Amino acid sequence: MAVQPEIDHATGRTTTGHEWDGIKELNSPLPKWWLYIFYATIVWSVGYWIVYPSWPLVTNYTKGVLGYASRQDVTRELDALKALRAERAGALARTPLEDIAKDPTLLTFALAQGKAAFGDNCAPCHGLSATGSPSFPNLRDDTWLWGGGIADIHQTISFGIRNADDRSRQGQMPALGGPNGALKPDEVITVANFVRALSGQPTRQGYDPAKGKELFASNCAACHGDEGRGNRELGAPNLTSRNFLYGSDEKTIIETINLGRGGVMPGWAGRLDETTVKSLAVYVHALGGGQ
Amino acid sequence: MSDVLASPAAKKGAPPVLPEYDDEPLYEGRREIYQQSVKGRLRTIKWVVLVGCLAVYYFLPFLRWYRGPNQPDQAVLVDLAHNRFYFFFIEIWPQEVYYFTGLLVMAALVLFLMNAVAGRVWCGYLCPQTVWTDLFTTVERWVEGDRRERMLADAQPMTAAKFGRKTLKHVLWLMIAWWTGGAWVLYFADAPTLVKDLATFQAPMVAYVWIGILTFTTYSLAGLMKEQVCLYMCPWPRIQAALTDQYALNVTYRYDRGEPRMSMKAAARAREADQPAGDCIDCRQCVVVCPTGVDIRDGSQMGCIQCGLCIDACNSVMTKVNRPLGLIAYDNDVNIDRRRQGLDEVYPIIRPRTLVYAGLIAAVGLVMLYGLMTRSFTDLSVLHDRNPLYVQLSDGSVRNSYTVRISNKRPVHRIFVLAVDELPLARLTAVGISMTAGDWPVIDVGPDSTREIIVHLTAQKPADLPPSSRVTFRITELGTGEKASMSDHFIVR
Questions:
Q1: In this complex, do A30 and B399 lie within 8 Å of one another by their Cβ atoms?
Q2: Which residues on chain B are in Cβ contact (under 8 Å) with A108?
Q3: Domain ranges in chain A?
Q4: Is residue B366 domain-resident?
Q5: Of B2, B4, B21, B492, which to mutate for an interface test with A (greatest number of A Cβ within 10 Å)?
Q6: Model confidence over A155-175: pLDDT tens digits?
Q7: How far is residue B310's CA from residue B288's CA, in Å, rounded to a whole number?
Q8: Is residue B219 located within the same domain as residue B264?
Q9: Which CATH superfamily is domain A72-167+265-289 in?
């Protein structure tokens, strides 16, 4: 049996039987054009299923006769982006490193590209904001092992430090402690305190500055210099700086003297294209530490 | 729930059958509304508004407004490529989009005020759908004749002449629609240039696409859908019903005067016999001139757009039958009761509600005007690096980094000196800036553009500073001395 609809007396229309707070819904017919557009959308969707990828299957999906895939769009857009950037990337490749900062447009481009590349490639060690962490240099301060000029930075990024590449930067902090080391344990402590004094930090009770100076001169000054100001040719850190790569507390310095140090950085010249490496150098130089 | 299987015989002797859902029509086709032409005061007002609105819309892009060399000289221009909006003496940058917010607030308040004063006059006179539908209906009337001719022609089979007229109508409609779309795109580029490019097929594809879209919408909405837009698509009728009150002047059939409706002869007889007789002679003129085809005598309803054409129609009829005018008029709900009680009619246009709306409109308008008058031509924004907050250098000094954006809203190249107050012994360096004035970097910013630079601020003796202190960045234009400043923090630990 069909349901007997209720008739609304004001309009003479039937109601749907739905009621909210005494307000009843009329069963007004839809406008014809609306209904036909609705049908058209249904037909359209069927066409869409045929033409485009749409239905998920158990391990796959229907591909559609056009063979469309959004992956192609991504590739095309990336190519378009490369083409769009080609002009400026070319200009970046031609411009000498030192002159990039003089052209505001080029600088903006290099900084943007450098920032993106840094996040992808450098941030895992140096941190997203390039502040580093113990054993990974902070690139924002003015303490540089190998030099903070833009050319030095570019060289370091290109070939890295202490890796298998001959062109990488080479230098070593040898192990001076241990049973066969040049320094006895008490001498290591003395030198460590001398080093702390160099950077203006307090020393332990009973420390003999004269002895420290003598030990430093004979064991350390060859690389770190007579005044402990370091040597960027060798990557020997400036010991008068407040910023120590591995930490400036006595325990850490003793560990450094005993065991030596030799952090490694990969080279990027082969992995990233030349303009990206250049952009990275410009970006790192602009972070504030650049000299 | 189908009843198809029940044979007619089974229903014999059954009580009268009420309609069932199965008998309901699935949809309702559009009844063609053959709107009849009408003459009168309100129709004249509508013509004036129509011509005025369309003239502004079609010709405003060609109006010039000189702003200086190398600047667009179009009075109203939306420059999407450079993110600028030009309106006569106003130029708005994307970050000043709050002016549009102000405009939208104003528009809403004006709509409230309109509804409080005279109901849906927006719908009846100013709405683009109304204006263009009116234009299209006029074209239709001009080609196919008035209501009677059109009804007769549509009732007869197709002839060559009729087909020619219909074709001509649609061609004219499409031409108007195409011109409407064409005018739209002129607001987004230099109009004379774009017209030339469009004509020689040199214009960008996006312009043609938009002209196509707007041609289609204008043609279908104003030509084919007409009143259906108001009845089915538009939210305004529903919203505005909530914005009116008992004092709003809505188009009203004064049924206290019109009922009982009867023919002129019957009314004359009734009056002689001292029987009640209304002024309405049931001539249906108010219905045939209505653009949405409603019967105003059924009272206020969603289909009524308050255009007042029925008022003009009824008044001309009342003149002919020698009865007082205003059987249908802009009137409020209160007066019907008051007339019945023998009281005077009241038209309180100035009442608390309208005063509040008008006051709010004035307030928003003044705030916006003040904002525009005091709009600066130099803008500085400073953003402290979030990470790291500070960097310690090898000699123990502390550096903070900031991103500084300088906006030059004048159409000329300008040079600024960037300086910092409140930090003794601070050193300020800007990346990529080699020129300095004393210790401060000198930055040049191109005409009508923004420049972003990274600056590093170094304090020599951080131990003397609190953990966080205020610094004020200040830019001063060389020559004019125009200034802008912004405060931020300097963090040392």
A1: no
A2: 452
A3: 72-167+265-289, 185-259
A4: no
A5: B21
A6: 999 999 999 888 999 988 999
A7: 8
A8: no
A9: Cytochrome c-like domain (1.10.760.10)
CB < 8 Å to B22, chain A = 2
Distances (CA, A) of A155 to A268, B141, B311, B431: 10, 81, 87, 21
Which residue of A lies nearest to B28 if distances are taken between CA atoms? A31
Asked if residue B236 and residue B268 are part of one domain, the reply reads no
CB contact (8 A) between residue B20 and residue A200: no
**Closest CA in chain A for residue B393:** A141
d(CA B201, CA B194): 10
Phi, psi (rounded to 5 degrees) for B32: -65, 130
DSSP tag of B395 = T
Q: Is A1 annotated as a binding residue?
A: no
CATH class of A185-259: mainly alpha
Work out how many domains chain B is built from and give that number: 3
Q: Measured between beta carbons, which residues in chain A are less than 8 angstroms from residue B395? A: 241-242
Do both B262 and B232 map to the same domain? no
Does residue B63 contact residue B73 with C-beta atoms inside 8 Å? no
Among B27, B394, B401, the residue with its CB nearest the CB of A288 is B401
Q: How far apart are CA B417 and CA B481, in angstroms?
A: 10
Quote the CA–CA distance of A187 and A105 in Å, as a whole number. Answer: 56
Q: Tokens representing A151? A: 């050319």
Given this model, what pLDDT does residue B427 score? 85
B444-492: pLDDT as tens digits: 998 888 999 999 999 888 888 888 988 999 999 988 888 899 999 999 8
Asked if pLDDT for residue B210 goes beyond 90, the answer is yes
